[in-house]
Write a structure and sequence with these properties.
Number of strands: 2
Strand order of the largest sheet: 1-2
Strand content: 5-15%
Radius of gyration: 19 Å
């Protein structure tokens, strides 16, 4: 770390919180540049999870998306209002969620733009650096073990 002459001053470029915030800003801007504002990055993540796990309950969805349950309920309600998912009440008041045909079609339409987002976000890095960045991000986010389960 760059501590200027022991002054206690640490360069912002050496502070992970600052760099993570900047990376997040860039990722969101690139996402909206390629996909517009009809779908948010979190809504996209929810749709992808439902594509992979149709019929999961809202609590499981929240856990998989790393969201709190009230935020997940709000996102599910918005996606339901758009006609992209359907919610079915289960025993004990839980809700089962799945993509509608319209939601599946929207998700399929997003794939080329998502590939463009990935290419732009990772484009400054060599192939081995891209793989290393993704490995480190998974480790940082605690998702490296989840992929092995």
């Amino acid at each position: 770390m760059n501590d200027q002459a022991g002054s206690g001053h640490i360069d912002l470029r050496d502070q992970p919180g600052h760099l993570i915030r900047r990376a997040h800003q860039i990722a969101i801007a690139v996402f909206h540049h390629h996909l517009g504002r009809e779908v948010t990055p979190i809504q996209y993540a929810v749709l992808r999870i439902l594509q992979d796990s149709p019929g999961i309950d809202q609590v499981t969805l929240a856990r998989q998306a790393a969201l709190d349950t009230s935020t997940t309920a709000d996102i599910a309600a918005r996606l339901d209002a758009k006609g992209w998912i359907e919610r079915q009440v289960l025993a004990r008041g839980q809700r089962s969620l799945r993509l509608t045909p319209q939601g599946a079609a929207i998700l399929a339409e997003l794939v080329p733009a998502i590939r463009s987002v990935q290419a732009e976000l990772l484009g400054r890095l060599a192939d081995d650096e891209q793989a290393e960045l993704l490995r480190l991000l998974r480790k940082f986010a605690g998702e490296d073990a989840a992929a092995d389960e």
